[in-house]
Design brief:
8 helices, five-stranded antiparallel sheet, elongated
């Protein structure tokens, strides 16, 4: 067990996605007893054994399927196999396994702007399993954000330039205090995308103007439908805290949508610019 804990800790510290596989129950003749463990990465068996042969090969395949699931959250599941019927082994017993993923792809959320709505959004997001980056040119507003190890703040005079360097799996919110700044950031995002989510705070009139800006910039027509404006679901009042709830709810909705079809989730009414 000591060796298992050591190897598990090493993988966690190195931020390598992996699956822990444990035999939790056996009936009849099986190649290993309950408690046997192994660790599996995308490359295959990393450490340990649950008995080798077809049982181990099939378990490694199942673990690698979990690693390829693109889930941003940990997955835990049980499987039960008859060694004869399911795996073609002569042992004749039954094995129940517990598989648990670690270090799955982090949910990265980037927020442009550190105003009242951004502060409320970040306060909610720090309760979730995600990593947040907030970008603003105003140090006094960045200083008001919640103190959390999940949050990284970036001060820059040119926020649009930061948009060009974002990782493409980031969920992006544009919540700055001015239309011109929002538009400049949005255009850079759309030029460099696609992103799984882009949301811009505002109302329907602002959405019309932004779509015209996208067209004037010579971007594809599909780019006009590649962002949410208004950001957030159609619920609540225009108070920053309730706007934040609607935005975070939409982030979760898009994250959990199997196809990330943002257009099918588009809200109908807007929120108020901070």
């Amino acid at each position: 067990m000591h060796s298992y804990a050591k190897q598990l800790t090493k993988l966690i510290q190195e931020d390598i996605p992996f699956v822990s596989v444990t035999i939790v129950k056996t009936i009849g003749s099986t190649p290993q007893s309950p408690g046997a463990k192994m660790l599996v990465t995308a490359d295959g068996l990393y450490w340990g054994t649950i008995g080798g042969s077809a049982l181990e090969r099939r378990s490694i395949e199942e673990a690698q399927k979990l690693l390829c699931s693109n889930s941003r959250r940990a997955i835990a599941s049980f499987v039960t196999w008859s060694l004869v019927k399911d795996l073609g082994m002569p042992c004749g017993g039954i094995v129940r396994l517990f598989l648990e993923t670690y270090n799955m792809k982090s949910w990265k959320i980037v927020i442009f702007g550190a105003g009242h709505v951004a502060n409320a959004v970040i306060t909610l997001l720090t309760k979730l399993n995600c990593w947040i980056t907030c970008i603003d040119q105003r140090p006094q507003w960045l200083a008001k954000l919640p103190d959390s190890p999940q949050l990284t703040t970036v001060r820059t005079e040119n926020m649009a330039s930061v948009a060009t360097a974002l990782e493409r799996d980031s969920f992006v919110l544009v919540l700055t205090s001015g239309y011109e700044t929002d538009a400049a950031i949005l255009l850079e995002l759309l030029k460099g995308g696609p992103f799984p989510y882009i949301g811009v705070i505002g109302g329907q009139a602002k959405a019309v103007r932004l779509k015209q800006d996208v067209q004037n910039a010579g971007l594809s027509k599909s780019s006009q439908h590649s962002f949410f404006c208004p950001a957030g679901l159609n619920l609540g009042t225009k108070d920053p805290e309730e706007i934040a709830i609607s935005i975070v709810a939409q982030l979760i909705q898009v994250r959990d949508s199997e196809l990330h079809e943002a257009s099918s989730l588009r809200p109908q009414t807007g929120t108020q610019t901070p």
